[in-house]
Amino acid sequence: MSLVNRKEQIEQTATRLFKTQGFAATSMRTLAQSLGMEAASIYAHIRSKEEILQKVCFRLANDFFTGFQNAVSQPGTSTDQLQAAIVEHVRVITTNLEAATVFQTEWRHLSEPYLGQIIKLQTEYEAKFRDLLKTGKAKGEFKFNDVHLTTRVLLASLNGIAQWYNPDGILTPTEIATNFNSIFLHGIVKGKISN
Amino acid sequence: MSLVNRKEQIEQTATRLFKTQGFAATSMRTLAQSLGMEAASIYAHIRSKEEILQKVCFRLANDFFTGFQNAVSQPGTSTDQLQAAIVEHVRVITTNLEAATVFQTEWRHLSEPYLGQIIKLQTEYEAKFRDLLKTGKAKGEFKFNDVHLTTRVLLASLNGIAQWYNPDGILTPTEIATNFNSIFLHGIVKGKISN
DNA sequence: CCTACCGATCGGTAGG
DNA sequence: CCTACCGATCGGTAGG
């Protein structure tokens, strides 16, 4: 039990270092020093440096999928489901801030077969958002020119939250999601009627 | 003159490797092999590995500033200027695809004083966009709740282009900019009147 | 969780 | 642009 906690502590500290220094530039000795132990001792708890990165990436990928599933499993229009999916995505990032950043920026350092698996998961997640937008357009709810571009614009700006979100800041995750929905659904031009 | 070309070739090859493997994970020996020379020979052309990263980052930062200046130096509404700024940003990224990616993802590996300088430039660039949005709102052209969030959403999605843009793909840089303008100005909800 | 240590590799320099 | 090489550091293992 104490070993389990120590393992979690190692992963948490490593995640923080991976975020600030990057995976490749973070040495096991630096990690050990942050934990108050010797580098060799870490291997009593983990198999390799990469194993930590693997856990972080797959845990986050799984969280994003679960969040999306929650969003689209409830009845409603495509607009409702998109809003819910945005809320879920914001929630996953803001409640796993450091891990989300590491997942986004360090996944390329995974080795096979994990690299291929995580790319596949990212592709699938993007496809889920794309299908949601496509369905909404077919139903006459949405308008846009290119569904691939629109999906990527949305996801890039959502993932960007990890780079600037401050848990001690003014904006709550809910408020952030509300702002996103407003921008993407209605734009920022002051219209004459609907706004 | 041949030395100048060789230097540019080194920087170009390094940029490509930094993009795919990351700065820290790219060794001078790997770079040398890609160039068909010995690692030690590279130092006849450059001072250090980091010097290459410095050049890439500051060149791109400068390009983004110049682009923005071009956009706002012509008369027009805030909407016109925002559209022009988006066109310029898309242009800088798509014409410097690999360098833009390296700038975005590897700048944290710069050492002082360069690190502080590049952070300052990023902060200033974001402030320019923010002021443009702020002015547009004050003039009654724009609507949004939080100018900081809105600016970051816009810039994150613009920078995300570097991750998916394909020079051989269907969408031209101009078309990409047009799509961005449509999404951010009018949103993706099918309105009754203005759309 | 430690000491002691492994082979490999790192960025970079000397000298030509 | 090369050979030869430097000290430092890397991820990880053996054995306790």
TrEMBL record, chains A, B:
Instruction: Tell me which PROSITE patterns the record gives.
Output: HTH_TETR_2 (PS50977)
Entry superkingdom: Bacteria
Decide whether keyword Cell cycle is in the record: no
Q: Which UniProt keywords apply?
A: DNA-binding
Q: Which SUPFAM superfamilies match?
A: Homeodomain-like, Tetracyclin repressor-like, C-terminal domain
- InterPro entries per the record? Homeodomain-like_sf, HTH-type_Tx_Regulator, HTH_TetR, KstR2_TetR_C, Tet_transcr_reg_TetR-rel_C_sf
Q: Which Gene3D superfamilies match?
A: Homeodomain-like (1.10.10.60), Tetracycline Repressor, domain 2 (1.10.357.10)
**DNA-binding region located at which positions?**
27-46
* The protein's name: TetR/AcrR family transcriptional regulator
